TrEMBL record:
Transmembrane segments: none annotated. Residues 57-163 form the Restriction endonuclease type IV Mrr domain. Pfam families: Mrr_cat (PF04471). Coiled coil: none annotated. This is Restriction endonuclease type IV Mrr domain-containing protein. InterPro entries: Restrct_endonuc-II-like (IPR011335), Restrct_endonuc_IV_Mrr (IPR007560), tRNA_endonuc-like_dom_sf (IPR011856), Type_IV_Methyl-Rstrct_Enzyme (IPR052906). It comes from the Bacteria.
Length: 196
C-alpha cells in the first residue's frame, strides 16, 4: 500500500505542477495578446500620423513637432522644436546620428502651393551663419519651384518636398535624403487643390 500511496502523491504533485505551468502559460499568452493589441494600436496611430492628409490638417506648430518626431525616430539626438516668432529660419534643431548639426525650416502649406527660391534664399542666409548648421534642411508639405531647387542645389541645401515627405513618413530614414540630387528628386509640379 505504501507504493500505491506514493503513486497517488506523485500523480497529485505532477497534476499540481502541470496546473501551475498551464496557468503560467495562459497568463503569459494573455500578456502577449495585450502587448500585441497595444502594439497594433500604436502602429495604427503611427500610420494615421504618416498620412499626408493628416499632415495637411496639422497647424504649423504641429507640423514642426511632427518633423522633430521623425528626426528622433531616425536616431537624431538633442532634437528641439524652436520655431516661432523671431526663429531666424530655424523651426527644428538637432544632431544627426553622425554628430552633424541639422537645422530645419518647416513649411506646412496647402498641397497646391509651392515654395519659391525667395524662401530658400532666406533660409540659406541664416541656417549656417546664425544657427551653425552642418546640414540645412527645408521640409515642405507641397513642392518647390524649379528655381528654388536650382538655388538649393548650388548652396548644398537639402529639400524634402511633399513627395519625399511621403517616403519619410513611411519609414525611409532622414539620412537617405541628404545626398539626393535636389534638381532630380521629387517634382516641381503642383498638386491639385482639394476644392475644385
Amino acid at each position: 500500500m505504501g507504493t500505491a500511496l506514493l503513486g497517488v502523491v506523485a500523480t497529485l504533485i505532477a497534476t499540481l505542477v502541470a496546473a501551475v505551468v498551464v496557468t503560467g502559460l495562459v497568463r503569459a499568452g494573455r500578456r502577449e495578446a495585450r502587448a500585441e493589441r497595444t502594439r497594433l494600436a500604436e502602429e495604427e496611430r503611427r500610420q494615421a500620423r504618416r498620412s499626408l492628409d493628416a499632415v495637411w490638417a496639422m497647424d504649423d506648430r504641429e507640423f514642426e513637432e511632427y518633423i522633430a518626431e521623425l528626426c528622433r525616430r531616425d536616431g537624431c539626438t538633442g532634437v528641439k522644436r524652436v520655431g516661432g516668432a523671431g526663429d531666424l529660419g530655424a523651426d527644428v534643431i538637432g544632431w544627426l546620428p553622425d554628430g552633424r548639426k541639422i537645422v530645419i525650416q518647416c513649411k506646412r502649406y496647402a498641397k497646391h502651393r509651392t515654395v519659391g527660391s525667395r524662401d530658400i534664399q532666406t533660409f540659406n542666409g541664416t541656417a549656417r551663419a546664425e544657427h551653425g548648421a552642418d546640414v540645412p534642411l527645408f521640409v515642405a508639405s507641397c513642392v518647390f519651384t524649379g528655381p528654388a531647387r536650382t538655388f538649393a542645389a548650388r548652396q548644398h541645401l537639402t529639400l524634402i518636398d511633399v513627395n519625399l515627405l511621403g517616403f519619410w513618413n513611411s519609414g525611409t530614414t532622414l539620412t537617405s535624403f541628404l545626398d539626393l540630387d535636389i534638381r532630380r528628386s521629387g517634382t516641381n509640379r503642383r498638386l491639385r487643390p482639394d476644392h475644385d
